[in-house]
Amino acid sequence: MKSILQSIALVSAILFIVSCDSGGTSGVTSVPITPPQPPAPPADPEFGLDGRAVKGVIGGATITVTDSAGADVAIASGGTTGADGSYTIIFDQAEVSAPIVVTVAGGDGATMVCDIDLAGTDDDCAVGDGTSVAFGESYPLPATFALRGLVAEVPTEDGASATVNITPASDLATNLALASADTSALTAADVEDASSQVLGLIQTITGTDLSGQDLNDIAIPDVADSADAAAASDSSLALAAFSAAIIANQGEGETVGDVIARVNASLSANEEGNLAASGTELSSLTNSVVTALTTVSAQVTAGGGDSSAVDAAVDNAEAIEEVYEAIGDEDVSVPPVPEPGSTAPADQTKAFISTFGNVVSSALATTGAAGAGGDGQSATELFATELDAVAALNSGPATAASGALKDAVNATVADLTEDGTIAFDNADATNPVTFSLTKAGTTFSIADASSTQTSADGTVVVISATTGTSDGAGVFSLEGVTMVTTTPGAAQGDDPVTTQTFTAGTLNGAVVDGNTVTTFVGTVNGTSATTSFGLNIVYTDTVAAGSDTYTATISFASATADDLSLRLSGTVGEDISNYSVTAGGDTIAFTATPTAVGTGTVVFSDGTVLMTLSLESGSVVADQAGNIAVLTVAGVETGTVSANGTVTYSDGSIQSLPAGIF
Fold first, then answer.
1. DSSP-derived 3-state class of residue 82
2. Is the bond preceding 338 in cis, omega lying within 30 degrees of 0?
3. Dist CA 638 CA 609 (whole Å)
């Protein structure tokens, strides 16, 4: 209960307040009371991106960003790359829908450093306007140039930054990710898969271990700066070489942007999530990577660094390039980079061994050679014998002999303008070419044709034909064709040995789309039952006008339903060493690197796994552990093959190959 004093005090206080507000002149001054203000809202967090743009260092380039739906992201600061290609940008919006794509554009003073050294020349990088600059020099980038990178997630905390390195590798990954998303919004899975696919390609080519990494994890050095190159990691140097390879792959009249677009267009992801491209396209790209790695190695050494890892990458790239070249227009599947501890490389090796066995078995069934081998030859040895037969048909002296005969016939047809007969003789005692040519109206008849070529090692090839006709300009037909290959004796003073004859043949020439196409049909006969397969071979030789290189597709007549074909390429007058064999729907490449006659290394591959064997004097040589072959994926050993056909895989599993394969 309130006391009387409390009640009086309360009434007095009310009266006092009223008197203050009554407008009177009592002399009492009113005091305004300011209500408390609400606290200011927190400032939007500042977050953004950082990284480096390198295809050769790109300076002064404008940066734009788009979100997962392709909408522009506002940039508050940092929209240009620095002189060293680095950049830091802050977004001018509170939220960004990731993944995002970052693009650097040419024009407005943007420049790029030439990052390839072509054997000391001063025209290493074509600017695109008919001029060139030397390695290490900068040149302007046109406004049409653009290079992209991307990242799956963008942290939005105040002061946070995501790294996006922008290179030809990241541009390829962006292309793949956007193709995967198609018309939908870009997802983190699209980005992560694309990064893994591109890293898998670079690891396959260079043999550099990139497992467990993301494209944005790998810093990109300036290879024109030897100190920067020497301080870089192996993975950084591998990506730098991939970037520099773009210039090495630049064709006549192409800009840098043209090359990047062409390389991107040649590579796509298949249903299995692997990168797919033709062997020819991958061979071209890998050749350029070899050139770039050579530059990188020299720069690392110049900067006082250790170039051994780069030199090993050169060896790996050269080996896989030969495989790609042999596979040719067939598609190659390149797997993504494996996660650390993944069984994928071992699984890929097991799949290769299965494919290899299928190709050999199918090839032998198709050619009819499976029943041969009375002297104990294994299936693989028989298969190798068949490849040797093809090699003899396309040896240096064989292609030189057929080329000399073709050229002489074409030239004589052109010179013979009146009806009559000419007995042609090139008067060359070492490599004679002779034939009789008769003109009757518009018809030219050939008789008793012969062409001989002798190689430096004493191998002699003689091609002869009994009759034929010619219309000139590369169009001709020869009948009764034989080709005999004779090699020197095993020891000095021994008689020469006839190692192969090609009989009952026809040789026809035509011109198709400006190329000379030669068809060679006949039967190959060796010196024994095991090398006399009685194969009917159709040999198509395509020689570009004015060029001495050729591509040959060889198919075997077969009583089975299986198709078998070989593809090879080479230079007229030089022995060939690379094939691809397609049988039973599978393709295996076969490459040889001789160090002497019958000695060197032989590689079988599907474009992912390499199976390497060593030869000495024509025989497979086992190592100290008794293994005759080593299996590798991207430079890492994934298995071995023993002399008795036992395959031991890197995951510890063991497989016995069918009897006779090895």
1. coil
2. no
3. 9
